[in-house]
Amino acid sequence: MPRIKRAAERVYAWLELRLQLEAPVKDAILHKVPRNTASWWYVFGSAAFTLLFLQIFTGILLALVYVPSAGEAWNSLNILNHQIPLGWFLRAIHGWGSNFMVAVVLIHMAQVFLFGAYKFPRELTWTLGVFLLLMTLGMAFTGQVLRFDQDAYWGLGIGASIVSRVPFAGGGLVHLLLGGPIIAGATLSRFFALHVFVIPGAMLLFAALHVWMVLKLGVNEWPMPGRLVNRSTYLAEYNQLTHEDGIPFVPGAFWKDLIFSGAVLAAVAVCAVFFGPFGPGGQPDPSIIQTVPKPDFFFLWIYTILSYLPPQMETPFILIVPLLGIALLLALPFYASEGEKSWHRRPVAILSVSTIAVCFGVLTHLGTTTPWSPHMSAWSGDPLPAALMRNATPLARQGGAVFQAKQCRNCHSIGGTGGERGPALDRVATRMTADQLRFKVVTGGGNMPAYGKNLSPAEIEALVSFLETLHPANERPAYDAAQQSTGTVGQSSGASMPASSPAPQSTGP
Amino acid sequence: MSSDERNSIEPQSVKSIDPGAAAAEAVTGRDDKHVVSRRWMLLKAGIALNGLVGLVLAVPIFRYLLAPWRKDSSFDSWVSLGQADAFPEGETRLAFYKNPFRQSWDGETDNVACYVRRQGPGQFQVFAINCAHLGCPVRWFPQSQLFMCPCHGGVYYADGERASGPPERGLFTYGWKVASGELQIDAGQMPTLSNTARLVNIQVGEGNYPCRG
Question: If you measure CA to CA, which chain B residue comes closest to A290?
Fold first, then answer.
């Protein structure tokens, strides 16, 4: 044993004479950090770094099989999923690793923000971090494109449509984005180059500088309320702190980083095993139009915003707000580089983070349920509740058929099924009189298309007669008081009145 | 002498870690800053040479990168959708064509769909499949005579006019003509708000475009 040990020492000495890495590595791992930074709050950055390397490693393994050609990419992913042993697992790890990475980077950013770690002298560390966040999101989007299924194809269409809104240069920028006039082979090739060479290369460089600055400038001390950052005194104060109450980074703080990174990797693996890989969905054939494209989880909030923006606001919003947001993030450490670090005395910071978190949650939830999208098959797939038809007149039943056949159901739900684009119609008769219903059906208005040209007078009468039955049994339908007082109510809605449950109407008020 | 040099390797390499110190040494050492030394002049010449070569190389590199950036008109080409009489009057039908600009590795992506609406003899409207909002594929519902978009809920009437939802305008239309019995459309690029799709305004007649040959 001693001989082996001596041999190992000789090899080490031989290498060290040439590499001379011992001193800088010792410097890096033994440098003192403030004792209170050895906290579980400080583990997200290293976890993001670990995930970056997991993504690079699994990405290289996937590249052994993946074919970056528009004609073959989808097939090669299916072969990875179904024919290469454990190919599905590698795809699942890479996919879940991506989700975890975006999440961990966002949490890391929120923590750094709340702990005031972006203040002097760590402004540049934050700035590089903002670019790293953007590149992480860029990797998530380009990765979704490389999945080259229907969602990827139409996602590119959405990207091109957004870029086309740029004034003057829009058309040319669309060509640059797509590599040609349409989404095709050239598009996938350039997104492959972005996903595999350009962005990861830049990310490695930026992440290396980011970590370098963390080592050189030291880990941000635990913020204490009232201990203000002052540019002229901070460095001396920090030095004093690490000298008086510092511990070596390894093992003092590093063991928590290691354990958390290991736990995150385990979580990625568990998700990969239990939930499997993402897609690929349908083949990227644009002539298959029976598709409901949807972005990946971390872009759902954008999808929601795009559906709720009023049309005239859309172009300015899409083009200006993201740039403003990025500029704000980049500028943050420069207009707030001194002063209070503690979240106890930064209510605006707390409010900003919680507002953003709530908005993100709500918008993402809406993005998963998409209440604004018509349900394309509700008209033929969702039956009308039988109770509505039980005592209905032949005219009202005819109206129910019109209601289904004309796709009203795609946007309006009855009995809890159908689209949510328009209001649910279970109680519509209590809100609108027969005349109002007729008017609305014929002329549309708001988000309702006009059906005047598409329905015959007989169909409209039948439809209104059916809609008039949609009210609770114990609640009378809406009526026009003016018409009623002149006694014309019986004529104007006589056809529909008996259709609904007759008891409340026949007696009248 | 040679052993002296060998010994001096380490301290020198340690010093040169700090570029400021190295530069200071260069200036305060044998170099007099008032004298243009040969080595500094040659260094500047080296930088200038690399800058010049870089500039010369940048021109073709940028030209290569910008290669896809072309005028809209360079993508205009007439594509046949088949016999015009195959489209029944008063109906809107899904039609397909191969994009005229394609490569062998495009796979299925150059299959493009569009909607052909024939109002009467020699009266057509050809709509792009892409919603005018963000490009998702709209679906035609003949019963209600509406196009509906599955993404954000844009709805259009049978003549392509906007009915509701987030789109700012009606469906994109292709220019068309009937030549030797075939319905041809002026296609070639994905219609978006920025290209000629925005400007084309279909008129009823023999075709709204002058024949480009």
Answer: B139
> Residue A93 corresponds to which amino acid?
I
Q: Cβ of A161 and B101 within 8 Å? A: no
Taking the Cβ of residue A9 and every Cβ of chain B, the question of whether any pair is shorter than 8 Å is answered with no
Q: Which residues in A lie closer than 8 A to residue B76 (C-beta atoms)?
A: none
What is the rounded CA–CA span in Å between residue A181 and residue B73? 11
pLDDT of amino acid A502: 41
What integer pLDDT is reported at residue B195 of this predicted model?
A: 72
Residues A422 and A455 in one domain: yes
What is the structure's pLDDT at A310? 84
Q: How many CA atoms lie within 13 A of A101 on its CB side?
A: 26
**Distance (Å, rounded) from C-alpha A484 to C-alpha B96?**
56
ipTM computed for the complex: 0.82
Asked if A449's CB is within 8 angstroms of B155's CB, the reply is yes
Instruction: Say which of A70, A160, A410 has its CB closest to residue B192.
Output: A160
pLDDT tens figures, A328-365: 999 999 999 899 999 999 999 999 999 999 999 999 99
Statement to judge: residues B46 and B142 lie in one domain? no
Domain holding A271, by residue range, is 31-369
- A21 is a domain residue: no
Distance (Å) of CA A48 to CA A61, A65, A101, A107, A200: 20, 26, 6, 10, 14
Residue B28: which domain range? 2-65
Chain A contact for B75, CB < 8 A? yes
Among B34, B65, B96, residue at a domain's last position: B65
- The answer to whether residue A2 is domain-embedded is no
Here the tokens at position A247 are 């511990």
From the list A29, A50, A37, A34, the residue with the least C-alpha distance to A105 is A50
